[in-house]
Amino acid sequence: MGRRRGAELDAAIRAAVLELLAEHGPDGVTMDAVAVTAQTSKPVLYRRWPDRRALLRDTLLGIATSAFPTVDTGGFRGDMLAVLRAWAALFTGDSAALMRSAIGAVTADPELAATFRTDVIGARKQEMDAIITRGVQRGEVRADVPVDLVRELGQSVLWHRLLISGDPIDDEVVTRLVDEVLIPVTRPYYEV
């Protein structure tokens, strides 16, 4: 195998971090283990990251910030379906164990927690605010909707299913969340 550089090496390192995180949790992501799994050397890792926590933070934030494309489907329902389907995709299949381990990493690392709240959760809040604002402008969402609660409603159910109940996370539950919870909660009041 030739010497990997640049994007190819970076992808191998990040894949190794995610594999170790999913299999062994945050404590399993050591510089030694990443070097072995990625088939590289520890000096290569230390040239890019000062320690395992920085490597883990960088990898998790990269995944989290790229998992959610900015959407504008032309309607509140479509936007909410797109966002919740992106969450559901993260919370199912092979990535489910990774997401549970990522939460463990966030709770064990105050710096990662602060960065995650600012860079990932902060960005998700802004995107949800934009979706709700567009819904208000289109007349699909009432202007006095409690944005701080609505933007978390659907996601919180999916997080609960992932971390607590183990109930299925599928397109049926996403559609029900949008059609039976979010739309009724946000629907404008009309005088009769």
From TrEMBL:
**Top-rank taxon, per record:** Bacteria
Q: Where is the HTH tetR-type domain?
A: 7-67
- What is a GO molecular function of this protein? DNA-binding transcription factor activity
Q: Which SUPFAM superfamilies match?
A: Homeodomain-like (SSF46689), Tetracyclin repressor-like, C-terminal domain (SSF48498)
Q: Which residues bind DNA?
A: 30-49
Q: Which Pfam families match?
A: TetR_C_11, TetR_N
**InterPro entries for this protein:** Homeodomain-like_sf, HTH-type_TetR-like_transc_reg, HTH_TetR, Tet_transcr_reg_TetR-rel_C_sf, TetR_C
Name the UniProt key words of this record, in alphabetical order.
DNA-binding, Transcription, Transcription regulation
Know the name of this protein?
Answer: Transcriptional regulator, TetR family
Give the source species: Mycolicibacterium vanbaalenii (strain DSM 7251 / JCM 13017 / BCRC 16820 / KCTC 9966 / NRRL B-24157 / PYR-1)
